[in-house]
Amino acid sequence: MSFIDEAIAVKEKAIAAIQDIKDKMALQAFFADYLAKKGAISVLMGKMREIPPEEKGRFGQAVNAARKEVEEAYREKEAALAKEELSKKLAEESIDVTLPGRSAGSGRINPFYQIIDEVTDIFLDMGYEVAEGRDVESDLYNFELLNVPKDHPSRDMQDTFYIEGEGDLLLRTQTSAVQAHAMLERNPKTPIRLICPGKAYRRDDDDMTHSHQFGQIECLVVDRNISIANLKATLELFVKKMFGEKREIRMRSSYFPFTEPSVEVDVSCFNCGGKGCSMCKGTGWIEILGAGMVNPKVLEMCGYDPKEWSGYAFGVGVERVAMLRYGIDDIRRFYIDDLRFLDPFVGK
Ligand code: PHE
Question: Could you tell me if 174 and 158 are in contact, meaning their C-beta atoms sit under 8 angstroms apart?
Answer without folding.
Answer: yes
